[in-house]
Amino acid sequence: ISFSLLEWFVCSFLTILNTKNESADDVYEFLWQNNKDIADKTLRVDFLTQMESSSLQAERYVNFTIQDINYVLKVTDMLKIMSTRVTQPADLKDFMAARYSDYKDFANLMVNQYLFKGSPAIQQTPAMRKYLLYYKSLMLGDPVYFAVGLLPCSRLWVWLANNLNIPPTNAYYTWKTDNMNGNPEKHYKALLNKYLDTPQKVAKANTVFRTQMQNEHDFFFTS
């Protein structure tokens, strides 16, 4: 056996062991730590570094915001379906209903803020289209993985807002303050730790989480 192959085998084995140990303690935190490399990469994309330096062109921010409105509206529609489709177990049903209510309120706020009359017809960028198609695929399986798919957006935006150096004098300080105080842990942690209770489920959740983290990165990268 070659050294490189042996090294790969050892690393793979240790990864499996670490996954089992960490997932048994806190799946919610494991998913974040295991995919934080994408968060670090997202923090350095051109869109966010220019936002941080207050040099981001207003047109780029407007286009980004329009795509974000589209995202919120489409995910709200999907959550509406999930909130009626998921009837058991009770805590997962309550999760979907609560997330639908929160997304619906936020969608209405954004539509009213930008003076749209109803839900606007927005042409999606390729990155946004890919992101939303993956959400739709998650609707077809175990609903706990749809919950996992929602988490990257909720957690990443809070983390980005808290890690970008945007002072009150910056033109995009409002974006920072609007996003820095979220608390996704209270919605997701207990639920995911309860239902992702085997190494196989954790592995699948990690694939979903990483895919959605990459979709978030691609949204910022192409904005």
UniProtKB/TrEMBL annotation:
CDD domains: TenA_C_Bt3146-like (cd19359). Gene3D superfamilies: Heme oxygenase-like. Coiled coil: none annotated. The keyword Signal applies. It comes from the Eukaryota. GO terms for cellular component: cytosol. Keywords: Signal. Residues 1-24 form the signal peptide. The keyword Signal applies. InterPro entries: Haem_Oase-like_multi-hlx, Thiamine_Salvage_TenA. This is Thiaminase-2/PQQC domain-containing protein. It comes from Triplophysa rosa. The lineage of its organism: Eukaryota, Metazoa, Chordata, Craniata, Vertebrata.
